[in-house]
Fold this protein.
Amino acid sequence: MSQLSEANRSAKPDARLIALDWGTSSLRAMLLGDDAALIDTRVAPLGIMRIGEGGFEAAYRSVVADWLDEAVVPAIAAGMVGSAQGWQEAPYCEGTAGARELADRLAKVTLSDGEVLHLVPGVSLTEPRAEVMRGEETQVVGALTLFPEMRREAVFVLPGTHSKWIRIEDGCIRECQTFMTGELFAVLRQHSILGRFAGAGEAETKGTEEDAAFDAGVEVARTSAGGISPLLFSARAKVLLGQLPRSVSLAYLSGVLIGDELRNALAHPIPSLVMIGDATLCARYRKAATQFGVSDMPEIENATRAGLWAIAREAGLIR
């Protein structure tokens, strides 16, 4: 865990908010000053799946205890910590939602010393299909806070284990489409013949050969008229027929999966696309999108921090 520098310690009287991005595998804590300025940040491997029953307060304090002791500021968290498997469930905000709706539905966890941690609810939608999100709603609020010109209409793309394409209209979440692209890749890599066939360690191949294999996978998906299942086995068949080096078969498979996601998501005209997420993964999506004629997919940084600040402000936790 990082320690505050002397400069950061002197800035502590100006602390305004403790903001947490608390997910399945890790906890990222941020101490924020005026206008969401970052005073300090810490990351710990204390995701909700790694904390036993009754262990959440101890985990929380192990990361931010000195912040709590030295600065009396509100605290807010987004992510899976507010799920049924987390510290306390923050029920979904049903239907269209923006910062105001999320702020109105904050859940509260009271600590043993009476301090309160506020939990941001997720968002659930029933039309045109059942969808849920928890954590992404905060990123969207942050993106709209940083770039208010996008409030009228935009689509945010959040690549990840479960990639989400979230449509915004009039500053609120109106529609979401989730693709299990990242999880499918992990399952196929670890538990299918495609992963075993690629060979241990060979997925680390870098360079132009891997890029070409990824592009080929994207193109196969882009030009396919059917579902993804018939395409997956081609990652093995192409190697057996000498059309693809075994060492880059997983790069090809990644291209197929991301290409299929893009083919489905871009099947109908959509407004400007904006990406939020890991820089490396966003770059891969942008690379794939060029084959679909999409050349402009800017990336927004610090969306979670801005979103937590905006929701806390709407809730009256900060002025």
